[in-house]
Amino acid sequence: MSGRLISELPEQDLAGRRRASRNTLRAQFALVIFLLAFLPNLVLTLTAQPALPAGALVGWMLLVGVLCGMVGYVLSGALLRPLSRLQAEVEGGELTPHADDPAEILRLRRAFSDLLSRLGTEQTRRNAFMATLVHDLKTPLIAAGHLTHALVHLPMPDAERREVGAQMGAETARLLALVQQMADAHRFEREDVMVQSAPTDLRALLDGVARRVKPQAEWGGVEVTVDGSGYALADAQVLERAVTNLTENAIRYAHSKVELRVTPGGLVVADDGPGLGGSLAQLAQPFTSQPTTIAGQQYTAGTAGLGLFIARRIAEAHGGELHYTHQPHGLPSHEAASPLPASALPTVFTLTLPEVTP
């Protein structure tokens, strides 16, 4: 029974290919041209009723039919040549415009170019996502594994055991934060950020962020200050996530000081670090596929831009923008920047909001 089914499969496949070969655009064009050329000749011949034997008349019509079929085949190929050429280019992955392309083919070529560009972007981001899994997630997992092995198999006093347990907790928190950032970036890339705006005390929001990052700041020897006051319509929980991302990045690369400030234009996170290794538009992307240099340190493709991307999307959801300026050694910046007052510190991120009231 199974041998019979296997033998029937090639026959079914061959029949399907035959149907597909008959149901082509060229065959349809050739048939239309054939009918347009042959039917008038047939009507004229029958109307004229020439004094010819039936055999000769049938032979003449067969000859006309063959000629009409050949003309239809040749003309259909000529009409579809730009489409066949586009098919070959799409299969080869390289689209080149030609001067003799009809307008429809030009539009189709542009559509295919846009599609291939989007597919290429998705592929590079997928590769970067895999790099994230291999690199960024593996590091805390390996550290947690070593700590667990030490906690289970090595004799140690209670104080040291508690310290190892605290380190395990820190690695677990780092892993969870990274997973949350990856999930947020994936969601914010495909969906709009949902906000529920309400009157928000921006100074209280910054004070809460400063308290949350205090252990990280103390461990790095960085001072975090908060200044300014104001209110705005915002989703406090979502906006706090954006400011936290910016503040944690600032603490990670600052030399000694990070400043959080409420301004008439929004919220400012500034630090005395070396700044970004590229433009904000380039780095604030999810799962960037290019290596990134920050503070003189090389980062592989992965999560280097997740925090900035999430902050930018949250700013846009509130009707604002995320700006970045860097003024080394306190010199005025020559880059196009927001005219809002920011900070005397060199590296400044400004999350603008539509309206901030005192």
Automatic annotation (TrEMBL):
Lineage, top ranks: Bacteria, Thermotogati, Deinococcota, Deinococci, Deinococcales
Sorted UniProt keywords: Cell membrane, Kinase, Membrane, Phosphoprotein, Transferase, Transmembrane, Transmembrane helix, Two-component regulatory system
Single GO MF annotation: phosphorelay sensor kinase activity
EC number: 2.7.13.3
Protein name per the record: histidine kinase
InterPro entries with a match to the protein in the record: 2C_sensor_his_kinase (IPR050980), HATPase_C_sf (IPR036890), HATPase_dom (IPR003594), His_kinase_dom (IPR005467), HisK_dim/P_dom (IPR003661), HisK_dim/P_sf (IPR036097)
Reaction equations catalysed: ATP + protein L-histidine = ADP + protein N-phospho-L-histidine
EC category: transferase
All residue ranges annotated as the Histidine kinase domain in the record: 132-357
Topology in the lipid bilayer: Multi-pass membrane protein
Predominant localisation class: membrane
Subcellular location(s) of the protein: Cell membrane
Transmembrane segments: 27-48, 54-75
